[in-house]
């Protein structure tokens, strides 16, 4: 298995994902772009498309979603896992997107602020605002990427952004990822360039390999793909019974680790393992 990275075993810590939504305020501000790599296309072999240059997403100011100074707050999705599971997953869609009319304060204490938009493919029964709230709270979690003390994130509705998160039907994911030479087979997500595209099938149904609620699996999707945008590569299990790293392709199997959605332990230890060649 290679060198064990964590000094002690810890059981899976499941985030409390059901709660009230964040109260929001508008906050302006510029984006800090330093250290933002133009990473190579990355596709998950049963987990994780790129930005379609021909699409025109609707955008604009609207209802904000983040509380003032709302960094390091626990995820609080707007719907129960049962309600989310009832959302139909069409095989295909039009390939055009609506941008969430939501904006928030930066979350995290890092000097580098990553501005991002959330976009949902038109014609599917998923609220772009609810998706934006959930993604924002995942990125604000104290065990998320803000734990490194360097990175902060800010949800925006318009203007410059450092990356986009698109939620799309399997067919649209295949086309966008396929244009970059990635094979997703209607099943997985991918990251290409500045765009994270989430397969609606995984967002709604989760993965049989992940022992936890679908809301927590969505946290894994976002943490894994945003990790690629931060320049993180794939790793494997760090040791029998250890939490699986967020940068591990957990949908391929846990290899002795315990399913886990978060990059960091509660004590601030980064969860990792041997690099995947």
From TrEMBL:
Residue span of region Disordered: 37-110
Transmembrane regions listed in the UniProt entry: 12-36
Pfam families referenced in this protein's UniProt entry, alphabetically: DUF3152 (PF11350)
Superkingdom as given in the UniProt entry: Bacteria
Domain DUF3152: 89-254
Keywords, sorted A to Z: Membrane, Transmembrane, Transmembrane helix
Biased segments, Acidic residues type: 45-58
Protein name, as recorded: Membrane protein
Native source organism of the sequence: Streptomyces camponoticapitis
């Amino acid at each position: 298995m290679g060198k064990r990275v964590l000094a002690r075993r810890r059981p899976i810590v499941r985030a409390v994902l059901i709660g009230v939504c964040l109260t929001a305020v508008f906050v302006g501000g510029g984006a800090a772009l330093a250290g933002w790599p133009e990473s190579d296309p990355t596709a998950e072999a049963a987990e994780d498309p790129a930005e379609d240059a021909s699409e025109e997403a609707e955008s604009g100011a609207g209802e904000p979603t983040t509380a003032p100074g709302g960094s390091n707050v626990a995820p609080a999705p707007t719907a129960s896992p049962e309600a989310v599971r009832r959302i139909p997953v069409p095989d295909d869609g039009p390939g055009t997107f609506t941008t969430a009319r939501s904006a928030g304060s930066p979350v995290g204490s890092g000097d580098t602020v990553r501005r991002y938009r959330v976009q949902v493919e038109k014609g599917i029964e998923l609220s772009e605002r609810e998706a934006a709230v959930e993604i924002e709270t995942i990125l604000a979690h104290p065990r998320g990427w803000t734990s490194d003390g360097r990175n902060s994130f800010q949800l925006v509705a318009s203007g410059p952004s450092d990356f986009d998160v698109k939620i799309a039907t399997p067919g649209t994911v295949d086309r966008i990822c396929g244009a970059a030479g990635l094979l997703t087979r209607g099943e997985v997500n991918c990251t290409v360039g500045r765009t994270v595209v989430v397969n609606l099938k995984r967002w709604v149904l989760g993965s049989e390999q992940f022992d936890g609620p679908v809301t927590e699996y969505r946290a894994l999707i976002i943490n894994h793909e945003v990790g690629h945008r931060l320049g993180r590569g794939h790793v494997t299990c760090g040791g029998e019974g250890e939490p699986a790293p967020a940068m591990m392709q957990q949908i391929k199997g846990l290899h002795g680790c315990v399913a886990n959605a978060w990059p960091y332990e509660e004590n601030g230890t980064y969860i990792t393992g041997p690099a995947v060649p």
